[in-house]
Amino acid sequence: MTRCGREHMNNVKETKIAMNQPRKVFGLAAAVLLAWLTATSVVVAQSQVPQRLAPATKAIAQPPLLAGGASIDLVVPLYQSRVVTVVTPANRVSVANPDVADIVVISPTELYVLGKDLGTTNVLLWDNSSHLIGAINVEVQHDLDTLKRKFAELLPGQPIEVRASQRSIVLSGRVSDVEAMNAATRIASTFLAQVQTAQKAQEFKQGSASPRPDKSVGEVINLLQVGGAQQVMLEVKVAEIARTEVRSLDAQFNSIARGLGNFTVGGVNGGATFPPGLFAPGNLKYPVFQTPTASGVPAQPWGPAITEFLPSTQTITNQGLFASFLDKNFLFNLALDAAKQQGLARILAEPTLTTLSGQEAKFVSGGEFPIPVPQGFSAVTIDFKQFGVAVKFLPVVLNSGHINLTLNVSVSELASNNTVTLAVPGTSSTFTIPSLTERSATGVVELSDGQTIGLAGLLSETTSSLITRFPGLGSIPVLGALFRSQSYQKGETELVILITPRLARPLPPGKIRLPTDAYVEPTDIDFFFRGQMEHNGPKKPVPSATDDATK
User: Fold this and answer.
1) By the 8 A CB rule, do 303 and 288 touch?
2) What is the rounded distance in angstroms from the CA atom of residue 529 to the CA atom of residue 98?
3) What does the alpha-carbon distance between residue 372 and residue 383 come to, in Å, rounded to a whole number?
4) pTM, 2 dp
5) In the structure, how many helices (H) and strands (E) does the chain have?
6) What are the strands, taking DSSP E only, across 424-452?
7) pLDDT tens digit string along 159-189?
């Protein structure tokens, strides 16, 4: 090729190279632009689609290593497995209790341990030379890690510690309220229910084979403590007022008239008796006989002794009028028992009782009265019955701040009516057993601190009227009151029981005031000359907290 041809070819190559350089720059710019657009679209897509957090991965612990004749402790959850690595290849494996754990040899240097039942056992391993490689102390217990996660999810903020004790689950720590403690025990009991279900399935598979007699399910041992102000003070107010009104008019009269020929006439209001015969000397009674007839019929007894007419004794209980008229052949006695009574009874009891949340408390203020109880034919024992003010309640402070109360309030007193009198055979002794008037209420309520609610209330009104009259005569206006007896009774009762629970805290020294602080014993002048039961002068000073601290 000539020199000119070579120069021409070189010029062509340089031209191609010069033309290719702009193309390369343009391609590089296009690639950069495409990458930017792709990144922008990805960012936009990520901003539109909500991001999902990657699930937290739990670090997997390395399998325990057994070597050099050592002994290791291995905890296996029930119905779960663990892998143990052995440095020296094992030739022979022995399990003390196959019912607790099952051992599977994966390879000469790896063992698979499966927890079958709650309990403890050990595993021994030997090498080819029958030398002891080591021992594994296996304890199969409840799945405590899962139980702890359940507590963290369902009861956040409650520091509950979980341990295993043979077949039981032990809960310890300090929770905020009783509601959280009850929830923790119920959650832990579900793990025991799982064991019981699996145990029944295993017994069913065994068929006629006798199961292990010691496979008890276990229990939840509650060692949890409730923190915070969990002392509850209950204020109870029992107020009752009873009004009674009694109006009565009892007319008692008797009369007898003689000298009306063969007739003797009389009347009575209140009852009377007629002796059956005449009184002879010596207070003997002989019947009155008719005169014998001519036909020979013997004389028959004829009527009572009318002349011995004996009316009932007339009485006036409190207020009344009486009158008497006596003539030769006429006797008239009259007694009017008229009364109007009004009664008012007021009862106010305000017991106060304090106890811990979840603990029952009881308060009784009153007394006891004896009741004879026969024991056989000749023995009598004495039993005692309580009366007075009795309060029994069980408070539970809930997590919401409310207080759940189970209440039993009773107020009783001795009554004079409806008494029972018993005579002791062979002696002149008698027992009088009084009756009781009781007001009681039971219930379950839920209140906040300081709130008041009416546990029970009663509004009762009773009216009774009784009229006893002489037929015909008792209906005569005005004068008919002498021939009738009438009574009217009316009673009204209002009762209310109020309760107020409060979260109680102890008082500092010196802040307590006693009912006896203001009492001063009377002097001789106050007691003998003025008739006073306490001194009305200046009261003794009550010691303060500063005085108590300086003593």
Assistant:
1) yes
2) 97
3) 6
4) 0.50
5) 5, 26
6) 430-447
7) 899 998 888 899 999 887 777 888 899 999 8
